[in-house]
Queue: 2 jobs
Job 1
Amino acid sequence: MPPLLSRRTFLLGSGAGAALMLTGCSIGKAEALSTAGTLDFADPLAIPPLAPSTLASDGARVFQLTAKAGSSLFHPAAPTPTWGYNGDFLGPTLRARRGEKVRVAVQNDLPDPTTVHWHGMQIPAIYDGSAHQVIAPGAQWVPEWTIDQPAATLWYHPHVHGKSEEQMTRGLTGMFIVDGDGPDQGLPTEYGVDDVPLIIQDRTFAGDGSFQVSSTTPEGLLGDTMLINGSINPYLIVRTEAVRLRILNAATARVFNFGFSDNRTFTVVGTDGGVLPAPVPVERLMLSPGERAEIVVRFKAGEQPVLQSHPQELGMSGELNIRAGGNDSLDLLQFRAATKLAAAAKLPASLVPPASLDLEDSSRTRGFILKDMYINGKIMDMSRIDETVGAGTVETWNVSNTDNLAHNFHVHGAQFRIIDIDGVNPQPEFAGWKDTVFLPVRATARIQIKFSPYADPATPYMYHCHFIRHADMGMMGQFTTV
Ligand code: C2O
Ligand code: CU
Ligand code: CU
């Protein structure tokens, strides 16, 4: 029996206590998880379907999303109760072009209130899907907006205050691909074939096959089983020399340090908010919860490299670093290159001219300190507006993690540039448009944000740590654009 199956059988057979021990959560000494080299990659990678859409008489592209409870068969022993959009687990990939008007009819068929937040989208605050746009069970919510930002890999997920970790873990997550209106960038574009979404998550299964859905530890939920688009043990057949991967870290607490089993070089072509000015070759790429990257990997006929996550420095003390998964080595996805590969051109030397911001553009500087699940000493309060910014303006925010835990920082409704982290310019693969920045222990990031042009003094956007347990506990604040 392959090692993964026996490990899972063991988990199912011996109940939640064993699961906790394997994740190193709360019993005894923390231990690193190592699945590298152990998966047998028995299942084809699931690809989230592209959501169908219709064109309304006003020209809007209309999507339908229904959030509902279901069940998924992750392993033969017992089905797992899961939540999904238009299905049992995860959601379809929404796709629209810059300039298009988009309307999404969101139906909540769940037993609980939910929201759908469009992470990374420049969108009016009333349609942002934050904790202020709750959809009651049985109700419908119909946001509509015009896509006005560069091509990018965005995503959607629930944002009910205090419940996001639970709802995301049950399965509510999907991708939203924005296509550009400009010239083709010379990147692979065939969805699910050589342009492949990878929604990366981790889970812990309890003895009855159900997910552990909420955490009690400060680091949040760290699972011992990785899910790639909902597949536990996946392979992907490759038929072209170059494949674009749209990687979304949709875990609630785990930081992934992506790389390949043969340490090959791959090329980063995009960050959270769109393509980079030029391709950046790397061997490792670290993404914290909520961050995305688009990479291009080149393959040779017949080879079978494995996408893995490697140990990383989260800046925490030894024991904490282990508990937060920083020492883990994980098998994620095996690629199986066919014996004949269709030729793919080399990447162009430059992609798009960078839309640049100048430090001089900043009209104001603000400071944010993340510590003890607070931001600037305050716990999230739905009725308090923490900051008011000018619509369409540019500001510099200094964000400091003065805690002993790793955090990150996400801003709604806008994209930003990282100016520097502890005074050092970001590596080129993080120098593009971002909406989430990783903050190792005691790091300070200076970011320059271009705020949403939509003014609304009544409805706030949010900023928060995207380690979701922390956001649920109150490491979150609110701002309006006026
Ligand atoms: Cu991805 Cu406020 O969220
Ligand atoms: Cu967001
Ligand atoms: Cu945090």
Note: Residues 1-27 have pLDDT under 50 and may be disordered.
Job 2
Amino acid sequence: MSTNHSADYDVIAVGAGFAGISLSYHLREAGFNVKIFDRADEVGGTWAWNKYPGAATDSESYYYCLTFSKEVLQEWSWSKRYSGWEETQAYLKFVMDKFSLWPMFQMSTEVESATFDNDTGLWNVQTGDGKTHTAKYFVSAMGMISQPVIPTFSGIDRFAGPIFHSSRWPDGLDVAGKRVGIIGAGATTVQMLPEVAKTASQVTVFQRTPNFVLPAMQKDMTPEWEKEIKDNYDEIIAKARNHMFGMAFEQPPGRNAVDTPPEEVQRIFEEHWKGSFRWVFETFDDLLGSAEANQMASDFITSKIKEKVNDPELVELLTPKGYPLFAKRPPLDHGYYEAYNRDNVKLVDIKDREPIQEITETGIQTTENLYEFDIIVLATGFQAYTGALEAIDIRGADGHTLREKWQDESKSIMGVYASGYPNFFMITGPQAPFANLPTSIEQNVAYITDCITKMETEGYDRFEPSQQAEDEWSEHTAEIHNQTLMAQGDKVNSWMMGANLEKRKPRVLVYFGGAHIYYDKLRESADSGFPELSFSKSAA
Ligand code: NAP
């Protein structure tokens, strides 16, 4: 089915990661003519950019994958519980090969702007090579966490050695024998530090806020485990689809920590201390809702820091204070705490003891010391949810950009539509849930495919997302957000509230009502004919 013969494509999308790959397959199967642009020179999305040592998934690999093909689920073998970036990228290339998706993809091509043309009813998409491409539908498949935050330290351009954001690790850069400074102590640093420390002569982490770090407990896949997974994939997929964070975890255990005797709480915490976020969801139901229960979980995690880190002063520095577990997204530990027991690893408190003053030609100058380095890594995080969408000039029916629309609040309808932007979809945009991303992506892609199919089979030219539906979704999302402990993220610069961005007000970016409930809402919307949209045909 080709929708509009005056356009170059039916659908143009940006982003060649899980979202773009899944979208290309489903839309092509539905008969549409699709083009995907990505500025990276390789497919993989996050996994084409985040190639720092230790970069790996934090979801377990066997459900951090696309599930539309039973054959691929059986044919592909994961080597570990959490796969590294190379393996995840190789998996995505395998999917591309298997379904011959490559012709739809144009890599090394930056989309600079996308403008809805009210006269033609098409999106004009301008790429970095100066070309303009037209499509009836424009889709963001750019990922929730892709646009970096680059800090504005004075002197940042003066440093003589390599200095780069963690998601721009230079090809082939080897840290062996080098002195490495890492600014930031989030999920990226938690993964990177143990790997870098193995060969660097010296590593210094500059930390502002310590995190609650849960154990990953990485392990190799065994033939028995792989068989068990492959024999039970339908159940695994259903578990992820029906979980509040889109993870293939057991359902909530049906008990609260606050109603459980303290010794029993400790026993259950200990028994489930087996790696992954499972610990939060399979122990008690009230850890993210009750301050008292959250404190018990926080205390348990910090007691584990003491077991792992030898120096009591470092334990103190690494212990999160003054905010609840999950107000910031907890990282998973692959030897992070143990790395601080090494002689070549140092931690500098840049919040209370010695803030960074500037970057010099030779290193990082704090209020107390000059730390000299060969390499500086800016592991300073991302403009989550909105950053990639705002970095491109995406202009809707009234000519305004998404950046202008979202100056004060980043409203959407289910993270998929933005009012004022006809025939435009976002995959996991602002106010979608924070969840195992492939699960959310697949639900979004199925929904978008249904919407485009309806448009084309019923002969519509344009859909308009309703302002009222957007206001209702945003209010609903804010109401739920404010009932959770995650609402305290603004105290600690959480990217889940955009509170890590200078010059922007913290805002509600995440739907915390449960990914499974959100997926139900998408289905309800499709089944009832997309009531959030008004459909029209051009007069001609
Ligand atoms: P992050 O969690 O936002 O951490 C950024 C770090 O940089 C924080 O420690 C922050 O300090 C610090 N920072 C930012 N600006 C600074 C400045 N101007 N001066 C000093 N310190 C500064 O970013 P991330 O570690 O890249 O992780 C972001 C998210 O990406 C994760 O939460 C996760 O969802 C995703 N991620 C996933 C994986 C995975 O699943 N495998 C791996 C890595 C990342 P404050 O905390 O004080 O602001």
Note: The CA atoms of residues 156 and 257 lie 47 Å apart.
